[in-house]
Specification:
The protein has 20 helices and 23 strands. With about 575 residues, it is an alpha/beta fold. The strands form 6 sheets. A 7-stranded mixed sheet has the order 3-2-4-5-7-6-12. It has a 6-stranded parallel sheet with strand order 15-14-16-17-19-18, sandwiched between helices. Strands 9-11-10-13 form a 4-stranded mixed sheet, sandwiched between helices. The radius of gyration is 27 Å and the shape is globular.
């Protein structure tokens, strides 16, 4: 049966059809929906792990026990999981293990634009790269067969456009793969130096065999074209752009296995055309490899090394070197992100800004606290870095600084930084923004919420008890909707002679179970247009005809703006 399917949904279907039994991931755009969709299949045990390293190690444990397993993450998440990744290349697996990494060219929801293909090369593991939803399904299934045949994890690389676009997919039935028996093998799985040094030659021999596979595997294919003045090597979403821009005019070497690359096939293709052009997003990965083979392709001399490509960019750049390619006229308007109306973080950020705190931030929707008019965050590096950086900032003589970190991010990688503060004794104030959910990636559960990936009751970590157990005597809980409480507690903790943790607790305003107050109204006779209410940057507030105006379709009645108005012009009812 054929149906229209998002790339991530198709990937999940591929896991199901391949007989995957265990999936452990950490949510990260654009990979999140793969695990969310996989959780809909009762045949597969699914979970959100505290971080990507734990997820990969969990998937390896399931593979070791004899069941096909999966872990998924975004590109920066693979940095966190790199430790087990590189050694898994040495140990190999038992049952098939598939790792998905989803890149975010254009940085739609990311702090950097790294190219994950380098990980496959560095870790010496095969990587597949689908270019539409059907290939996503097929490649995930294929990855398990390759994993078991070559005794290694297989990486499948998605990207934002393939993950979130839709195309037709033909589905199949589930393959119930029998469990592989676990066999004790200390030489294979215990990576102490004496064993590890004997596994390295195994890795190199496997790469030689995979190189041979790259030459004959059908997902690396040459598509003919009438005009051989140029030949294009491409993969992933860039393949779709090339076909849209050029149709069947030029020969195309479409790579579905992006590592290892096929030496002979690339050379043969290059010999068949007058000029070789590599079209790829981000780094010149394929282009650089072609140069290692002695070829001289066009690539990053034509196409940008940063940002997403598109049909128009490819058409424009190809046309500059005198080739006819089509362009699209449509332009998509930009839509800048902002914190939602009623966001529980807004009141706290206003308080931090008012107190002129240096705020070291972290990864989450609360990173938008850096945006005007609040402009209340001055550093965001990576998950967990706010806490560790605050310790270093204060040890170097910094003053009047705090760290802010979300509840999910704190469980991901903030605890070790907090342990460092407790152990090495810096006078630091850490603020945990507990909105009862993993908000930025679309409301996934985490170890502090008390629910698992399916919404069933699960173990719940008590943040207050955890912080006290780590050595913090001063642990305060505040309501970020209460500006006076926020201000008083912040001042007290900044003036204390020891480190402390403030937990700002209020559930995300978008959670379905959260009940809102009626929207506020403006008494225009009292409003003097001082614009004090505008200082919080709430999208429900604006100025209209010289007076404050509340959009009742957005306002959730949080009351934060009401506390800023000295003239009592904002209230639930206008009297």
């Amino acid at each position: 049966m054929k149906q229209l399917m998002q790339g991530n949904t198709a990937a999940a279907r591929g896991l199901y059809e391949a007989g995957c039994c265990v999936a452990s991931s950490y949510p990260g755009t654009p990979s999140t929906e793969i695990t969310e969709e996989t959780a809909k299949f009762n045949e597969i045990y699914c979970e959100w792990a505290p971080n990507e390293k734990v997820a990969m190690e969990t998937a390896f444990g399931a593979s070791l026990a004899g069941r096909r397993s999966f872990c998924g993450m975004k590109h920066v998440g693979l940095n966190v999981a790199a430790d087990p990744l590189f050694t898994l290349s040495y140990t190999g697996i038992n049952a098939g293990m598939v790792i998905c990494v989803a890149d975010d060219a254009g940085m739609h929801s990311s702090q950097n634009e790294q190219d994950s293909r380098h990980y496959a090369r560095a870790a010496k593991l095969p990587m597949l790269e689908p270019s539409d939803s059907q290939e996503a399904l097929d490649f995930f299934k294929r990855a398990y067969d390759l994993s078991e045949e070559y005794d290694c994890p297989v990486i499948v690389k998605m990207c934002t456009r393939i993950a979130h676009s839709q195309s037709l997919v033909e589905t199949g039935e589930r393959n119930e793969v029998p469990a592989k028996p676990y066999e004790k093998n200390i030489a294979k799985y215990v990576m102490m130096p004496g064993n590890a040094i004997r596994r390295h030659p195994v890795v190199e021999e496997r790469m030689r065999r995979l190189q041979e596979l790259a030459e004959r595997i059908d997902i690396n294919r040459i598509e003919s074209g009438n005009d051989k003045s140029i030949g294009i090597i491409t993969s992933s979403t860039c393949y779709q752009y090339v076909k849209e821009a050029c149709g069947d005019s030029y020969p195309v070497l479409k790579l579905g296995m992006i590592w290892p690359l096929p030496d002979t096939k690339i050379k043969t293709f290059a010999e068949s055309v007058e000029r070789l052009v590599v079209v790829e997003e981000l780094d010149g990965f394929i282009e650089g490899y072609c140069r290692e083979l002695g070829l001289n392709p066009d690539g990053k001399n034509i196409f940008p090394i940063e940002g997403e490509l598109s049909q128009n960019i490819i058409s424009e750049r190809l046309n500059q070197i005198h080739y006819d390619a089509k362009k699209l006229d449509e332009k998509i308007p930009a839509r800048p992100p902002m914190m939602c109306a009623g966001c529980p973080h807004r009141g706290l950020f206003y308080t931090l800004s008012k107190n002129k705190c240096t705020v070291l931030g972290d990864i989450g929707c609360y990173t938008l606290g850096a945006v005007a008019p609040l402009s209340a965050m001055e550093m965001t590096l990576c998950m967990g870095a706010s806490v560790s950086a605050l310790h270093g900032f204060n040890k170097a003589g910094g003053e009047h600084a705090v760290a802010v970190i979300g509840d999910s991010t704190f469980m991901h990688s903030g605890m070790t930084g907090l342990a460092n503060i407790a152990y090495n004794q810096s006078k630091s104030v850490v603020i945990i923004l507990d909105n009862s959910i993993t908000g930025m990636t679309g409301h996934q559960q985490n170890p502090t919420t008390g629910y698992n990936i399916k919404g069933d009751p699960a173990g719940k970590i008590d943040l207050e008890a955890l912080c006290r157990a780590m050595g913090f005597k001063r642990v305060r809980v505040i309501d970020p909707y209460n500006l006076k409480e926020c201000d008083d507690v912040l001042k007290e903790e900044l003036s204390a002679d020891e480190s402390s943790v403030i937990i700002s607790r209020r559930p995300c305003a978008l959670l379905k179970y959260v009940k809102h107050n009626p929207p506020l109204k403006v008494n225009t006779s009292k409003c003097v247009a001082c614009k004090s209410c505008m200082k919080i940057g709430c999208p429900a507030l604006s100025m209209k005809e010289g007076k404050a105006h509340v959009d009742e379709t957005l306002c959730v009645g949080c009351g934060v703006c009401e506390q800023l108005c000295k003239f009592n012009a904002l209230s639930e009812e206008v009297k």
